[in-house]
Hints:
The chain is mainly alpha-helical. Helices cover 62% and strands 5% of the residues. The radius of gyration is 31 Å and the shape is elongated.
Amino acid sequence: MNATGPTTPRRHAFLTVFFKEVRENLRDRRTMMSALLTGPLLGPLLFVMLLSVSLNRELDKSDRPLPVPVIGAAQAPNLIDALKAGGVVPGPAVADPERTVRRQDADVVLRIAPDYGNAWRRGEPVQVELFFDSSRRDTSAAVERVTRLVECYSRQQGALRLVARGLSPAIAWPLQVARRDQATPQSRAVLMFAMLPYFLVITLFMGGMYLAIDLTAGERERQSLEPLFANPVPRWQILCGKLAAICAFSLASLLIALLTFGVVGRLVPAERIGMELDLGPHFAANVLLLMLPLVPLLATLQSMVAAFAKSYREAQTYISLLMLVPIIPSLLLSFMPIKAQAWMYAVPLLGQNLGIMQLLRGDGVTGQQLGLCVAGSTATVILAVLATVQLYRSEKLAISS
């Protein structure tokens, strides 16, 4: 397992270790399937396909006639006609509407009070009841649809009552709100792809994880770490060669993921819901610039964590815990929306998250923001590499092996 022999020139040690690690990793088909296919290829496919199926299903349900059991339909024939005009198909009454909804026999049940007709003729307010289960996500569209039709009918009849009394319908609405939504069709796409930055970071993790674990934990299990460090080559050259190999596979994983998103992103029916999604070459190129400093950073962090493990499985556990760290910026921005400040772009992971969100919105990333993002991540990379080199230079690592 010696990466370099005594006769190998020291100046070639870096390339020798790099090509050795790349060649050995390419031989492991299961590792390659997981690093370059399962995550960066199947992940975007499954994500986009599930999103497309969900959106198409909701859109199809909004277009199809909606069957709704109605209790007391004979009390309000005009209301029933208005519901029919809106695509609702009144169904036969059910004895127990609560149980019907809980058993998922119907998405929503409408009940009209027995005194509806008498109260309506006296001009008194009347009430109808909607039974539904808000914990079922697939019923929200049906509930919203029936509610909108009932409220529209109510406003229409209220206006007719005012006209019949010689009053203007505007009297009932002295204040009107004019909503001016400044969101563009492309900026609304953030609602669907809010977790995209975290997915790309995980893709980088998966691309180089197995090679990072093999850097020390795998060598220890094969009892080849001590002979490897016994070569007359500085340890930092061996480390840099291995880090370069990890970066190569991580970068390949990221490129495959970006290419896959660019292709399958066209399958999302964004235009049918008033959105515009652009994951093409321009988006991919900018994301690549933002994510590029994270490639050596994550490779170094994975290698540093793996250095403290004494077995392959232990290293997997440590790195799996490390993979939870990148989700923090995504969760913060999801649950605690904040206005981006300039200094935030210099924070690794957070800067990439903010930049990708801006690209999804169609706002683009300014040169200053890109520079801060690259500079902050690069400075962190230098510190992490120096700390890892110092760790691998220490005798403690060799003794622990």
